[in-house]
Write a structure and sequence with these properties.
By secondary structure, the protein is an alpha/beta fold. Helices cover 31% and strands 25% of the residues. One of its GO terms (biological process) is purine nucleotide biosynthetic process.
């Protein structure tokens, strides 16, 4: 069964329209091939044939093995770890499509790496998010489709249209199936910077109350929790963030919630980067459940009993159809 927000599109629309099928092509990089297959399956299409390999010295070779002349091409490739490898692969894929006379090239980036380097917080720092945006644009992309970019201003770094896909509906749909009493719920932002995200999440989760963890960061990937704003005693706390990297922020936040008296703590995040020692922190018993999506591939060694992985393939597939048909994308999330 498709969730409510995806019922406007049925698979037979693609299957019965041969002209459309000939005009749209989906290719996958090596970053998250399983997600690309799911997207194509939802859309009723087959992934395009593409040959990607590494030379002995590490250089990347890309060759399209079917014609894309005059087609709308969608390249699915997250810039996840190894970030530089996957980013370069995406750029070369875009270049190959441009030189093969594709009509429009859309870079579908489920996880946009370097998005955290979106501003200067100290002197003599780079703004890598802007640099990566320039690289993608100069490579020849006509449009970018990205999921839950770390900060909204990063969309402004692109000089081409950006469709921002919010993965909250997928997580909200799953949490609704848990049938947790609305009076017991409280949504928690693990830091002040994520308050807007958590507030929007809480509004759609039965307008649940909001709590905020006040955190002081001492360095990159190092966090220290100071105190909590809000009431979580005896409640089910749902911590919401856009990504989990080393899990330092969310784990220390969960410790604080348990100390104050939260009954259960759930962690919800779109992007599971899971840099060490994230798995040890997340599987230590602090969380009743860790809910993530498959914007990044999760290796078998990173699975643990409390982990739940939700697919965003249908959401991305629906978004691609709407972009291709010149329909509204934002209406999916209303």
């Amino acid at each position: 069964m498709l969730p409510k927000y995806l019922q406007s599109r049925r698979l037979d629309t693609a299957l019965n329209t041969n002209t459309t099928n000939n005009r749209i092509k989906i290719f996958s990089g090596t970053g998250n091939f399983a997600l690309s297959q799911e997207i194509a399956r939802y859309m009723g299409l087959n992934l395009g044939n593409i040959h990607i390999k590494r030379f002995a010295d590490g250089e990347i070779y890309v060759q399209l093995q079917e014609s894309v002349r005059g087609c709308d091409v969608y390249l699915v490739q997250p810039t996840c770890p190894p970030a530089n490898e996957n980013l370069m692969e995406l750029l070369i894929m875009i270049d190959a499509c441009r030189r093969a006379s594709a009509k429009n090239i859309t870079a579908v980036i489920p996880y946009f790496g370097y998005a955290r380097a979106d501003r200067k917080t100290q002197g003599r720092e780079s703004i890598a998010a802007k640099l990566v945006a320039n690289l993608i644009t100069e490579a020849g992309a006509d449009r970018v489709l990205a999921c839950d970019i770390h900060s909204g201003q990063s969309m402004g770094y692109f000089d081409i249209p950006v469709d921002h896909v919010h993965c909250q509906p997928v997580i909200l749909d799953y949490l609704a199936s848990k049938k947790i009493s609305s009076g017991d719920l409280v949504v928690v932002s693990p830091d002040v910077g994520g308050v807007a995200r958590a507030r929007a999440f809480a509004k759609k989760l039965s307008d649940a109350p909001l709590a905020i963890v006040d955190k002081r960061r001492q360095g990159h990937n190092v966090a220290e929790v100071m105190n909590l704003i809000g009431d979580v005693k005896g409640k089910v706390a749902v911590m919401v963030d856009d990504m989990i990297d080393t899990a330092g922020t969310i784990a220390k936040g969960a410790e604080l919630l348990h100390e104050i008296g939260a009954r259960e703590v759930y962690a919800c995040s779109t992007h599971a980067v899971f840099s060490p020692p994230a798995i040890e922190r997340l599987s230590s018993g602090l969380f009743q459940e860790v809910i993530i999506t498959n914007t990044l591939p999760v290796s078998e060694k990173n699975y643990f009993p409390q982990l739940t992985v939700l697919s965003v393939a249908n959401l991305l597939g629906e978004t691609i159809w709407r972009v291709h048909d010149d329909c509204s994308v934002s209406s999916i999330f209303q």
